[in-house]
Amino acid sequence: MKLCKILVIDDDFPVGYLIKISLEAEGYEAVLALSGEEGLEKARASPPDLITLDVLMPEMDGFEVMEALKRDEALNSIPVMMISVVNEIRKKKGMEMGAADYLLKPIDFDNLLDRMRGLEINEKERDED
Q: Fewer CB within 10 Å, N side or C side of the chain?
């Protein structure tokens, strides 16, 4: 599966915007949501191929967003890359909840792209089986 549309959910506008414009510079369509609720609304309105999801957000944190995504049959197969400044305990929780990957802030954009491309290859291999 070629990743084309990426939904970036991050309450920190400068960080989210930087991810968005960096993805667009690489040819991806990127949409920014500044809260968990807004992210879920945008995902339901136009399901993306991949979601990058900040963990530490007010009102609805990344884990709550992940739970809502996994409960929604229309959204539960979308790969989610969780992104945060948090430690290994939270990384483990995110992976156990079904995250496709978990990156630490500050974002190394080349690493983000490499991991996204890795997801594309893994999805393609599964589709061929």
A: C
Where do the structural domains in the chain lie, given as residue ranges?
5-128
Contact by Cβ (8 Å): 127, 1:
yes
Task: Specify the amino acid at residue 77.
Answer: S
How many H helices and E strands in the chain? Answer: 5, 5
Domain 5-128, CATH homologous superfamily name and number: Response regulator (3.40.50.2300)
| Each residue's pLDDT tens digit, 58-101 | 999 999 999 999 999 999 999 999 998 877 778 888 999 999 99
105 HSE (CA, 13 A, CB side):
17
